[in-house]
Amino acid sequence: MAPSPTPGWLTNDDPRFPYHPESAVRPSVIKSRGMEILQNPVYNKGTAHSLVERERLGLRGLLPPSVLPVQRQLSRTMDRYWHGSDFIDPSQVDSGGVTHEHTRKWLVLSDLQDRNETLFYKCLMDNFVEMAPIIYTPTVGWACMNYHKLYRRPRGMYFSAADKGMMSTMVHNWPHDHVDAIVVTDGSRILGLGDLGCNGLGIPIGKLDLYVAAGGFHPSRVLPCVIDVGTNNEALRCDQWYMGLKQPRLAGDAYYQLVDEFVQAVMGRWPHAVLQFEDFALEHAGPLLKRYRDHHTVFNDDIQARCGRAHLTHLILVKAGQTPHPNSPTATTPNPTYQGTACVALSGLYGALRVLGKSHADLTAQRILVVGAGSAGMGVVTMIAKGMQAHGLTPEAAAANFHVIDDRGLITTARECLPPHVVRFARSDEQSTEGESLVECITRVRPTVLIGLAGAGRLFTPPVLQTLAAYCDRPIIFPMSNPTARMECTHEEAIRYTNGRAVFAAGSPEPPVVWHGVTKVPSQANNMYIFPGVALGALLARAGTVSDAMLMAAAEALAAETRPEELELGMVFPNMDRIRDISVAVATGVIKAADGLIQNKKLLEAIDAGPEELKAFIHNHMYGFLRGLWGIVGLREGWTAGGKMIACTQPRRLAAMTVAARVSEEMGCSLGREVGYAIRFEDRTEKGRTCIKFCTDGVLLREMMSDPLLTDYSVIMVDEAHERSLATDLLLGLLKKIQRQRPDLRIIISSATIEAERMAAFFRAPTAASKPRGHPLQHSEAGADQFSGNPALLSVEGRAHHVQVHYLDEPCSDYLAAAVEAALQVHRQELPGDILIFLTGQDECQAAVRLLEEESQKSGHRSGQLRLQAMPLYAGLPAAQQLEALSPAPRGVRKAIVATNIAETSLTLEGVVYVIDSCFAKQRAYNPLTGLQSVLITPISRASSAQRAGRAGRVRPGHAFRLCTEAGWEALPAATVPEMQRCDLAGAVLQLKALGIGNIMRFEWLAPPPPETMIRALESLHALGALGLDAKLTAPLGNHMAAMPLDPFLSKMLLEGCSRGCVQEMLTIVAMLSVESIWAPGNKVEVDEAKARFGVAEGDLPSFLNIWKAWLARVRDKRWSYKNYVSHRSMLRAADIRFQLESHLKRAGLDWRSTALGPGAQGDAASGLLTVRKACAAGLFMQAARLTEELVLDKADARDAGASVYRLVRSGGGEAAAAKLRIHHSSVLFRCRPSWVCFYGAEQNNTGWYEMRDIAVIEPDWLTELAPHMYAMVHAHRH
Start and end of every Helicase C-terminal domain (predicted)? Predict the structure, then answer.
């Protein structure tokens, strides 16, 4: 059967149903959801998205409640197209202090925030003073009034009465999982503008912009919200473009149920966020705060409730597993007591008193007249009254200082139905009349302070201001109402009608006024000074409440930030360009005042670590552009562009290591990458990646050997230059020459006590042309022309607190005992703060620690009392113990750090409040006539003493106890003698020669060394073979010695080992001579027994080989080291140095394998040891000594067997011949009497003896063999 034909109504030619392919509906398949759709211009329809689309696409809550069809959006767009911003009612501009320029800037910034939020916040942070009035008051008021006309893209979340039952789902449409701060409004009382409904969202947006810029909250972790319960503003309900619900506002149970649902939804998703209620009407603000205070972190910037509790409930920590309990909305309205504005007002009064030359305590004497009895006015009154009570007044006496006026006149107890929070301040005296006018009240009361918070416009009329000025010489006038149109008076009016005598602060920004040639600068009494810092401190602390003390601390912290130069201009608040520092200070004050309430364990650790760590902790939780990736990018684009580095030199190894570690931590990078350090025999930098390099001065000098012009660096900072070490002075002299060749090199010289003018004069002076022609450091006239030669002098203000200095009435005979007794007296006072004691050396530090520990054990430890923990700090201390001394004291412990002058600078000692200064220090002094140095205890300089005292003022006001009389202190030298003038210069001269400095005597020193020392250095280098008769480096010996990272004597020893076939042994000896001490502290008898196990009759240097061999045989076992009193850390350090020296020999093409005592050695052990001893003598022959027949007895000690006297072989008569030497007790030869020795080090003690260390026994004929140019054998004639 043939198929039936197709029905006619389906045929293509049926005229009833023609086919039109162009009319086919092609639905869009959208895979995105939520904010992704709104940010995609292809899919985004803005407010035209239907309710169904909003629900299905996850847009609910991200768009305003009303659906505006595309046609209506088109109408608004065309109005903008034809009229620009003129479509806004001109009457709303130029009102409230807002001009067309304000609106233009607001539009620019709003557009930037929509396009590039990162750049927006960067602009805001860098230009806060300029832009704050644009994004916040007064411009934000205009923006809220016209928000429905200015709307471009969604920002924040919208919750409305139409969303009831859906809010817990809606919150998950917000794209960010982490939110720290939520600001919400119901639009009922926006600034002083009244009910603005949904348009009120502009206030949370502006407020959170300040949270980010001033408080450091991250932009992605803040959420502006509006609860749209309708509006009673008839004009908005009739506006075709209004985007909110066009219905009357909800009230009663329906209102509170809706807010309940909102709070449960947002706190359910983000339970630890700070929730701030903003610009709620007074009848709702109090009950809402009471409703949620025990369940969530609630913050209200406009009102704070006491609610019958003994503490404020400004911020409440959420309790796990709890939900808000249903409080009746008809519950008693709590008393409004505090607000952000109130804190600002109190702080402003403190600042105004400082402007008048008074103290905070003078607040109690002020007569204060407040115009406005609303929530803001009474909050300010109550807060200031609390400030008066803190300074000793009773609540009644404080209340008697206030007169409050509202729209009905002066408030007295005769008025009926006063709220409880107003009754306290209602006047009950006979002189006060109910309803008294403002001028009448001023005439009778003669107030010193006039505060306006009525929001009713120009209430401070010329007669009011003139009357006030007639009865008060310097009136304090705070018109704090917002915006500007509702302010009680302008700055110009206040100055004019008080004849320039007013101390002024306003709620909105006001311009300066020139009065009779004097510029009067106003302050802005805006709560943006307070709420970012309070919120930040409360968020970090998670304290559960904000107590009276915490808010008082915030006000006082803000007042303390106003600088003296700002006070001189009449400013009662600090300049807003420091807003982030101000927020940190406020947050710090809040956190410190919350002690005992803090639930954040990491914050507690930071508090225990000291103020700097607390400040760093706060900064690390603040959003900014100077940490992490932004910081590194900034460096790469600045001074470190093109692979250049910034070098920061330190005088000590430990300082370079600790500062580098701290900077790397603050920058959020790993140590050794972007930030690293380099010290002798240790380099933690990464070539091509390190931007900032901390190093010792000596390391930078060593780098000049291969790169004379330091081309790897764009900036060199010489830190702690006041210490004037040999390497520092040498480096400064070379940098002066380098800068003539490299005008692009930036040199920064930093110090706390340096003579800046003298340093500037040194770099300003012309450089002598003393270099050989063709050398990189040779003077160039062309380079000199490019260099300005005019150093800039900068003084960076520190943050040290005041330190009170105490002196002795009479000189003390034993400063060690006096220091211990002073420390114990401080400890018995039980005041907080650690103790830092300055003594002269290791032995004294250890003795003081023992005495403090003994006294602490005798006195015992009572419950609640700080436990005294004494610990030493000196250069020879193992690094682990040094870091322990630098770490913060544990909770309940007071540290007493007994230190040498290593603690004067560079090192950060947190928590020190008390400094005990012996006013003495050990100082090295080199005698070029003997070739020996002395380590003597000498008085310090006044500059060093001041530096020590400054250690007490890092945390809080401190005390410095100087163990001398004031007259004795005045007699101290002004500055310390530079090391250049009191040390051996052989190493420095060798480096200068290697750098091509031909004429050493004409080299420009910051402090010229003594000629005798320079001559001795040249003589020593010539004797070692490093310099020839022409005073130039010899080849190859001199060049090899200069390239070694060792002093010339050790370099010669090592190179002699290469030539004699015992380099492996010399590597070990030189490495062990390069560490502090290989012997660990302990019982003297047991340590001597350990030395005897390894010691040999040939001296200390050969004994090192036995220790090294035994340590390697035990596979570098730490337990073996401990058992044998060998410093394991020193051995590890020596092993590292030995490896690096071996690598250096390899690179130089020198022998590094030969051995005289190890496997493969030629000859027996005796001959091998003889070779090693000769190699040692080849480097130390100038320090040879012989035993004499002299014997020195201690007549006071009957058991003294006498000390053998050694004399220098190369004495030449004079002082050298008179020098008495003996073997130091740390030597393995202490109880022996070898006839001839050479030694690496000898130091004179306070008894006059020179004590020899690191000794090797030699034969006398070796001297003539090894140094015939120095020694000759002669026969002694006996008479």
Answer: 819-996
